[in-house]
Amino acid sequence: MAPYRIRVVGDPVLRQRASEVTEIDGRLAKLAEDMIATMYDAPGVGLAAPQVGVEKRLFVYDVGEGPRTVVNPEIVEATGEWTYEEGCLSVPGLSWPITRPKQVLLRGLDLDGNELEIEADELEARCFQHEVDHLDGVLLIERLDPDTRREALRTIRERGISPSVLADAEPLGGLSLRR
Ligand code: ZN
Predict the structure, then answer these.
(1) By residue range, what is the domain housing residue 34?
(2) Could you say which of 5, 49, 68, 138 is the most buried, measured as most Cβ atoms within 10 Å of its Cβ?
(3) Cα 23 to middle of ligand 1, angstroms
């Protein structure tokens, strides 16, 4: 069983800007390890901390070369254009063709606190942009044109994709989640 439940669209934690990680320690390493297990269980190619309810700037990914973690990631260069059918574990079962830069240069830290600089292309670059968006509280549906976004929100409602009221989560305030 996955260590974490993945938060889905409608959960307020997905709309918040996550905070910089200030301490890289054993607890952070354990979080990353549990996020990787959750990502593989889903399965997905990337998972950002807010997707498991943790408002910290880190994500994990595996585009076929084994699992990696990036702490405090930042996209410092982006070039080209690439359209790719993009999905998100927080918007289960749906995907849309989305155009984004094709190559990016990502900077961040690894779990030992060493500086990382990764030049990425295509799927890896897409994954980085998608996960950094999560850390800024942005979901892929916000990358759709207005008509497609309206249609997407309708489909999400029709499919009943919403945060579980049975979750461990904080009080849900005035949000109406029962259908
Ligand atoms: Zn996502």
Answers:
(1) 12-162
(2) 49
(3) 25
